[in-house]
């Protein structure tokens, strides 16, 4: 009898150990959902839809976007973090929901380093500072001089507390020794509208959000909050080039899976995204939007996520950024 039980236990153990391998070999055998924590039509949604179109061809199964905005990106993140770790529910996120919000908001529904498995960094986005023509300035030095003349009076819009535009503002204020009037908005669209109307004086945002207005000349780019110039805005110097170091607030979009997703499944998803980023037509559309294709291994994205989590935690503490919701 003992021998029979031993054989049954051994068989059950082998079956359990073999399940992830079998699951990965069969993956995917049904549609894959990618959650984006922003409404349709924004830059993250645009990049996501470009990628899923190519992934569907590569993987032989439909890959689709589910927009789940709310709670500064954490609503979408929670959905994915609590999903089955089988590769069929993924999170296309910006830096905010996984590297900034955890340091600002209490009662976070997930731990970004514990509850997610990195798949791939998809794109990098340059954060650019822009002003309206009526302000009469064209450089960051002129903006700083104005802020010193009128401490706390220059209105500087962002896409929300803890967003990369907000962090760009905080880093510039620290580097220049000035104070701005922070005006947080619920997203980029209303912030751009108010900048164009002269309701606010300065705005920081991703290049894809601003590029059409920059090309039209309705807003003026004065500096890139990044470690290098953007490829389609090569005449716009970085803040560091203008004398303000430690002001890199680049945004990025990365694909995450729930923790414990089998490595072989992660590998298939990673390969599909990298193939999309290498496709000339897809790549050209990404570059034309102002974003910078990245790609690479899951481990590389994991290292970026950890470094960004630590960096922004430090900035949040030093600048005393708090939840105002």
Compact overview of the structure:
This protein is α/β, with parallel strands linked by helices and about 325 residues long. The protein has helices spanning about 1-25, 45-60, 75-80, 95-105, 140-150, 165-175, 190-195, 205-215, 265-280, 280-290, 300-320, and strands spanning about 30-35, 65, 90-95, 115-125, 125-130, 155-160, 180-185, 200-205, 220-225, 250-260, 290-295.
Task: Explain how this protein is built.
This protein has 2 domains: 29-124 and 251-319, Bordetella uptake gene, domain 1 (D-Maltodextrin-Binding Protein, domain 2), CATH 3.40.190; 127-225, Periplasmic binding protein-like II (D-Maltodextrin-Binding Protein, domain 2, 3-Layer(aba) Sandwich), CATH 3.40.190. Helix 6 (164-176) links the parallel strand 6 and strand 7. The protein is 46% helix and 18% strand. It has 11 helices and 11 strands. The chain has helices at 2-26, 43-59, 74-81, 95-104, 140-149, 164-176, 188-197, 207-216, 263-278, 280-289, 298-319, and strands at 32-36, 63-67, 89-94, 116-125, 127-131, 155-158, 181-184, 202-206, 220-225, 251-258, 292-293. The strands form 2 sheets. A 6-stranded mixed β-sheet has the order 2-1-3-10-4-11, sandwiched between helices. Strands 7-6-8-5-9 form a 5-stranded mixed β-sheet, sandwiched between helices. The protein is an alpha/beta fold and 325 residues long.
């Amino acid at each position: 009898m003992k021998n029979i039980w031993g054989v049954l236990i051994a068989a059950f153990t082998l079956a359990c150990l073999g399940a992830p391998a079998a699951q990965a070999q069969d993956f995917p055998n049904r549609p894959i959902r990618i959650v984006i924590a922003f409404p349709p039509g924004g830059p993250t949604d645009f990049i996501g839809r470009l990628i899923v179109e190519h992934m569907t061809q590569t993987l032989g199964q439909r890959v689709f976007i589910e927009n789940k905005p709310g709670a500064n990106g954490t609503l979408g993140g929670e959905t994915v973090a609590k999903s089955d770790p089988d590769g069929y529910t993924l999170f296309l996120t910006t830096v905010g929901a996984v590297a900034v919000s955890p340091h600002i908001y209490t009662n976070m529904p997930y731990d970004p380093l514990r509850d997610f498995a990195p798949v791939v960094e998809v794109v990098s986005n340059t954060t650019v500072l822009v002003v309206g023509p009526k302000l009469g300035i064209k450089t960051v030095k002129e903006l700083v001089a104005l802020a010193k003349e009128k401490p706390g009076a220059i209105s500087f819009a962002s896409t929300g507390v803890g967003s990369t535009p907000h962090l760009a503002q905080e880093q510039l204020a620290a580097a220049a020794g000035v104070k701005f009037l922070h005006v947080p908005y619920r997203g980029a669209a209303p912030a751009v509208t108010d900048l164009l109307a002269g309701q606010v004086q300065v705005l920081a945002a991703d290049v894809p959000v601003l590029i059409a207005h920059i090309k039209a000349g309705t807003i003026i780019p004065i500096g890139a909050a990044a470690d290098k110039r953007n490829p389609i805005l090569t005449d716009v110097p970085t803040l560091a080039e203008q004398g303000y170091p430690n002001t890199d607030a680049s945004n990025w979009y990365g694909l995450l899976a729930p923790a414990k997703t089998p490595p072989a499944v992660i590998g298939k998803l990673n390969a599909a995204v990298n193939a999309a980023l290498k496709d000339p037509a897809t790549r050209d559309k990404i570059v034309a939007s102002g974003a910078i294709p990245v790609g690479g291994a899951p481990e590389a994205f994991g290292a970026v996520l950890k470094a960004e989590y630590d960096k922004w935690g430090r900035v949040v503490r030093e600048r005393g950024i708090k939840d105002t919701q």
